Write a sequence for this structure.
């Protein structure tokens, strides 16, 4: 029991909505990008990663988004398709938009950065009229990724999707996923993220992301419990506050909270993808009806696997891999 | 008693938010504009007109908006000031924006049109950060004019103002005021007007405006009562559906409704300004605590005076003028 | 004889190219615009004024430009038509552009200013493909107004028109008409005005306008004669340097120059329109084959008449009016 | 003797102006890009390639351009620096622009395509005021790359550079390098390329590029000789018309022309870079004072080497490599 009730008669467990991008990961790592010679391409973008995570865990998933009408757009769509992610609502742009790119630079496991290409990207061209009510109503849950709010017309598409989800009792999960690019100001971010958060059942964000959402209305003191409480007064039933290397705290509407640490990784290659793999596995747990503590542990173990790998999407683990890690970890801890 | 409870300890009765423009009314009327030689200038814009109406009726009013840094901007601000409208939150633009213009063409009392200048207008440049919480909390009621939602950053300023108004129990009145200019699509209009309407206590719109708001989510059948009901499930306590020459229907949350006709005008010059004068006088009635039927009659009488005049803002009547008209009208009717 | 040879077998004497606008002149003058109540509308825009001047002097004229698809656009086109100005290459915009506006403020005869509306104006939407070679080749001379260079696609239309004019030996006259609005920087102005001036037979500009054109390439010392010389090395045969209230100097390629004063006006109302009326009458003289001194005097007399009137375009004088003034002036001087 | 006289007292032989980009070349070739896993990064962009070609041939070179303020911009600048290309006039953007990208897709040696990223690119942000007169006057020749004309402010920077080059007798070479992206229409391309070509000493373009330049003014019949003649009437002394796989024709102002074939490549990997390597080696020959026939042969041999390699810039050959190939080829031909 975890406070979330999913409609059981649904064809899909989960739909992701938002960014579909290409990650170009440096092959020669532990150096500045200037000295990198080659890059490997992967599907990327936070909601894409989360959906892929769920698909690899065995959930029946789908996606709502927009891709460019070129080789990269086709690659993304066919990659999702191969993972059995339903792409019927992945629209192809016809205005000359491009696929967003993220070139990763890994100077050291703790000094990573990203060179983004976000001008005229297809994912932000998704229009309200392209969101299919008939698709949304088939799902138990939908994930709204906050970057999709960063500009029009994608922003309106999000509000449209939320309208449909509410109408059909689809559980709405909001991953704030705040990235500075594209947003005009933090005030703008706060206004739209708050308008969305108000209507969501589950809210997942880092402490700094909640801080941005609170710059206009306060409260002055940044306090996880107060933050969660604010949203429980609206629609939220679960609020997850992420604290990076210090783990996460999950609050539930009944007043409960669960502090979770991170799983020690064998060999951290980079920090990218930790949040997405956590979110994917956590949501998977919710769908199974697990207690939030178990969801949280499952998420942390998944993150630990991804940070030890070269990619984000490709490295998303299976249930077995996660369970093995948890088992191993417990064995070690009990020695 | 009219279902709306105003906080009584407030310094201001009413704040308008949105467009501040210049009307340039043809002096030589009953002909196409091509043959007009001269124009007379007035302050215009729907929320400006409504606020002026309330000021002339004796209410203590203020305004939140943005004006151009030129002769027209200064004229508007000084005009409001002369009517005792508090302009402390009327900001001056410094980006080179201009004042919106409306050249009116009066071919006949029933064939009027407007030539709009809405490129790079100051009113749509109002930013969220420029809306003063300290000003809003001094008022009993705030009017949100829908055109302020038509583009950013003014759109965000509206959401900001609503956030402050809710926080301080300021009654929120939404005048949809849908004008095609500036909006990208009807879907966009529907999405943002619905996000606002959800949070308002009083909603005033024409039937066609409600139709636009309902294009996405339905209902299929356009029905005034169903429209009102939808909003009573959210925050609304009063919904006014305007039917142009056929009057208006006012719905109240307790299930009541009041059908109101229009007042016969002595000599209709043009139809501009009818809606704004109605809204101003209707809101004045709410502030007095009058029953909605009385508010409605007061509004209709006010509209009848304005359509018989050359201007909108300048022609807004006093309480005495409206009461005289109502008295006269009753006398005639009883003969 | 004036150094310019016009092709004599042409149907039209003159074609103007560029801005077609509306002037809204304050009726209540000698006060700030804030206190102006009414405005009178006239056709305006420098090349429009010059073409109207020539039409009123009896030249056979035409125009190349673009007007908005509304009442103001139709008013402009019909006004030109009434003056027998050939409007076959006055195109109507269909993108929702508006007519540029100039509200004039006359605080005193020497303190005048203009409030411009230049956002999304139709005149700057003229496209290269809309300029008719077949129309240009019918004319003796074409006037390029520098404001048409201020942005694309009108800028490209100018270069297209010049290409056609050169091909068909149409005399090219360049009126720099530098207005700060729309241009991004003085460097940009200099670059494009120089690219045009290089290809022109007659160049007319104020001293300050030549200064802008010389900011990139010098010469350091601002000297009328050096300025003129620079263009005589390219295509120019006549260079007119205007000095406002101090009159003008006309340089000719053969090394000649003529200093001209201004005509005393009976009662100066405003300074607007002085330059356009001068240019129109000066070009009229060139077309008659008059010596430049006589063209210059004719221009100055025309300017004197216009500054004594309320409008620019409407007040452009006839040959008779100008000749009367010159005669009168000579009579007075000889006393 | 080749009709071009270079000022001999110059510190630099050659300056390139325009695009500085990144090529990301598919490592797994002969397949659609969807199936490519990794990409190798190189410096790219036509004028960059030509300048690199000249640097590798031993010419003293420099560059005028703008790079992004990120890892890619720093990589480009340091790469040029390592080849002794003078980068003092390579400006760093500070507006958030990115480096243009070209992902190459090599399906087969004859079926290659490029996926371009050209939104908000740094190279098109070069401003007129950033072009250094003091740098240009140190060179014998400057190359204008047509893509730099595709939009403002880079377009104005080109005209500025030409103004300086003319002032200081720097030979101006125009490589039309027409790419559809960024240009609004072919008419726009024609107008600006013609304005530049008018002022150039050497013009290099493919037949299809000259066709675009002639769409407005004709001539109707596309004829290489007529095309060349048109420019000889202005400033041009040499006009090179490229015919892809059929080689090139070089026209000289004295009426001469030289037909040149292509060099058979041992193993063609892709066609990218053929034109740039030809241009680089051809210009190198002009700088040596070689007859145009010899320049042409040198250019063709260079192209043959580049199309047999994986990259463009990195593969630019040395004088020795080109001479070896020519010698080998003659030996084979004479058998």
């Amino acid at each position: 029991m975890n406070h979330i009730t999913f409609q059981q008669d649904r064809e899909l467990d989960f739909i992701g909505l938002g960014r579909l991008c290409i990650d170009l990961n440096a092959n020669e790592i532990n150096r500045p990008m200037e000295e990198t010679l080659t890059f490997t391409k992967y599907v990327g973008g936070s909601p894409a990663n989360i959906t892929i995570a769920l698909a690899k865990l065995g959930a029946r998933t789908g996606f709502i988004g927009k891709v460019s009408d070129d080789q990269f757009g086709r690659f993304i769509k066919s990659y999702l398709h191969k993972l059995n992610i339903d792409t019927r609502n992945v629209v192809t742009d016809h205005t000359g938009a491009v696929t967003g790119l993220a070139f990763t630079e890994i100077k050291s496991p703790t000094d990573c950065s990203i060179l983004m290409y976000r001008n005229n990207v297809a994912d932000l061209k998704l229009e309200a009229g392209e969101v299919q009510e008939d698709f949304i109503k088939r799902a138990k849950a939908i994930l709204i990724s906050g970057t999709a709010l960063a500009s029009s017309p994608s922003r309106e598409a999000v509000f449209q999707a939320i309208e449909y989800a509410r109408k059909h009792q689809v559980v709405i999960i909001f991953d704030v996923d705040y990235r500075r690019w594209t947003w005009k100001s933090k005030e703008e971010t706060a206004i739209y993220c708050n308008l969305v958060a108000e209507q969501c059942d589950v809210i997942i964000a880092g402490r700094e992301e909640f801080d941005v959402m609170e710059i206009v209305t306060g409260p002055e003191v940044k306090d996880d419990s107060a933050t969660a409480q604010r949203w429980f007064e609206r629609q939220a039933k679960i609020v997850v506050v992420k604290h990076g290397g210090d783990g996460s705290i999950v609050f539930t509407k009944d007043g409960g909270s669960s502090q979770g640490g991170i799983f020690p990784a064998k060999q951290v290659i980079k920090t990218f993808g930790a949040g997405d793999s956590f979110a994917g596995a956590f949501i998977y747990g919710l769908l199974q009806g697990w207690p939030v503590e178990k969801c949280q542990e499952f998420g942390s173990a998944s993150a630990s696997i991804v940070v030890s790998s070269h990619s984000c999407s490709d490295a998303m683990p299976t249930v077995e891999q996660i369970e093995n890690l948890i088992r191993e970890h417990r064995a070690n801890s009990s020695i």
